[in-house]
Amino acid sequence: MKLIMLIMLIVSAISLLYVLLRQRGAWQVAMTFCLHGVMAFVLLYLVNSTGWLAGIQVATNASTLVTVGVLGIPGLALLVALQTYLI
């Protein structure tokens, strides 16, 4: 079973590299996605490092990174509001 998963991972990685190298637009989309992910992590880090004064702390995990990466600052505000009022 592990061998099948490893083979699927290798084939998927090679296919992704092929698509990224063949089409310039796909490379640009991938880089934009990575940049948004990095910016989301930086925003979450800033909120977590400075938010302890006000008692605001948002967990840094895949779902919060995707939310902030896709929605940006409004997504971060949404997570802070959910954390403050619902949890």
From TrEMBL:
Q: Which residues cross the membrane?
A: 6-21, 33-56, 62-82
Which InterPro entries did the record assign? BofA (IPR010001)
What superkingdom heads the lineage? Bacteria
Q: Which UniProt keywords apply?
A: Membrane, Transmembrane, Transmembrane helix
What name does this protein carry?
A: Inhibitor of the pro-sigma K processing machinery
